[in-house]
Design brief:
Elements (H helix, E strand, L loop, with lengths): L12 H46 L3 E2 L1 E3 L1 E2 L3 E19 L4 E6 L6 E2 L4 E6 L1 H44 L4 H41 L1 E3 L4 E6 L6 E2 L8 E18 H4 L7 E5 L8 E12 L5 E9 L10 E9 L5 E4 L3 E4 L2 E8 L2 E6 L1 E5 L3 E6 L6 E3 L13 E2 L2 H5 L1
Helix pairs in contact: 2-3
Length: about 400
């Protein structure tokens, strides 16, 4: 049996060494490249971090600003109010009878002493005629008593010396004397009867005058409760209500001012009235009266404003808004509401001074919504930062945006 034997490749030691060297050099090159790439990346990251840190260190944020301004010598308050007529007169019947004539109706403008209605009462005319006749009778009685008194005086003057000389009895002298005194007393009674009857006649004539109902002042008739033929009664408590007349050339406006705004309200303060149904129109007036005492339940001050109303545009009983321009008792400053910061340190604002932030504590006197009035902490002309960032600190450097841009 024959065996076939193939030749076997033999690797020499020289070839093995070369391969190891090449492999090691490749590994070294890979490691060197990796180290180079890693180092370059680290260098880039470090450089970027340094640049970012530099930018953060050199960055100056831009802030919106506003100027602190004076609140002025007056402040304006708008409050709900009610209008009333300057004068209102409810006219009742002072004479009983029937309405013979009516010359005014609701909405009519009248002047003082203008006839509104005429009442007729024939029985009153009869009473007046009777009173006049009685007065003439009393006057005649007075003249008769006067004549009898003159006769008695003459008789006593004639008999007095005769009684003294004994030519006439003393009894006759006493009769003459007492008769004279009686007639003097009767004359005094007649005089009083005449005075009483004249007074009664004046009462009846006054009742007659009450039959003519006239307007007490210039105004407008706002209510009418009688018509021709209506029966009216004159009585102090149940008299017939006939008309209501209002004087509307000046309108009284009543407004209740809260306690915190009432300081400074006084007669003469400028005011204006606005009616919701008349947008764009303003009716100027002045405060004429104040209650000088607050309502204990609402802590408000009743204030009256007189508003000229020559054309009658304003109507009594209307709801309106009263705008008061009240003088300030102490100066205040105005800043935007978003400039005020409240934190653990209280209320303060960030003021921009020479490019740096300075925090100032303030006290709010009045909140106006988008603005607030403050009493201390800053002065007029200071620059405050609006909506300051939470990371702003005392002394931080900032730059201001233009005020127009900030306002926009």
């Amino acid at each position: 049996m024959t065996e076939n034997t193939e030749p076997t490749a033999v690797t020499s030691p020289v070839h093995v060494g070369r391969r190891a060297v090449y492999f090691g050099m490749g590994v070294l090159l890979v490691l060197a490249g990796a180290l180079g790439i890693g180092g370059w990346g680290a260098y880039q990251e470090r450089n970027a971090a340094l640049q970012t840190s530099q930018r953060h260190r050199d960055f100056v944020p831009t802030v919106q600003i506003a100027e602190v301004r004076s609140a002025g010598d007056t402040f304006t308050v708008s409050l709900p109010a009610t209008t009333q007529a300057l004068t209102t007169a409810n006219i009742f019947a002072r004479a009983s009878g029937y309405i013979d004539k009516r010359t005014a109706d609701i909405g009519d403008r009248v002047i003082a002493n203008q006839l509104l209605a005429q009442i007729t009462a024939p029985e009153l005319d009869h009473q007046i005629e009777q009173a006049k006749a009685t007065l003439e009778l009393d006057r005649a009685s007075f003249r008769q008593t006067q004549a009898n008194l003159d006769l008695a005086r003459i008789t006593w003057n004639r008999d007095k010396p005769l009684v003294a000389e004994g030519w006439t009895t003393r009894q006759q002298g006493s009769i003459d004397q007492q008769n004279l005194k009686a007639l003097e007393a009767s004359l005094a009674v007649a005089q009083q009867n005449i005075a009483a009857q004249e007074a009664q006649l004046r009462v009846l004539n006054q009742q007659k005058a009450y039959q003519t109902v006239v307007a007490p002042f210039d105004g407008v008739v706002t209510q009418r409760n009688i018509d021709v033929g209506s029966l009216v009664q004159a009585d102090a408590t149940t008299g017939t209500f006939m008309f209501t007349v209002m004087q509307t050339d000046v309108i009284r406006t009543f407004v209740y001012v809260p306690q915190d705004q009432a300081v400074g309200v006084a007669p003469g303060v400028d005011a204006a009235v606005h009616i919701p149904e008349l947008p764009g129109r303003s009716f100027p007036g002045k405060v004429t009266r104040i209650a000088d005492a607050l309502q204990p339940d609402t802590r408000t001050l009743l204030t009256e404003i007189d508003v000229p109303n020559p054309d009658g545009t304003l109507q009594p009983g209307s709801y309106c808004t009263a705008e008061l321009h009240i003088p300030r008792k102490e100066p205040l400053l105005v800043v935007p509401a978003d400039a005020v910061v409240f934190d653990a340190d209280g209320l303060h604002v960030a003021v921009l001074e020479d490019g740096a932030v300075r925090f100032r504590k303030v006290t709010i006197a009045r909140d106006l919504g988008t603005q607030v009035e403050i009493s201390d902490g800053v002065k007029a002309g200071d620059t405050v930062i609006r909506s300051p960032a939470v990371n702003l600190a005392e002394g931080s450097r900032v730059q201001a945006a233009p005020i127009k841009a900030a306002a926009k």
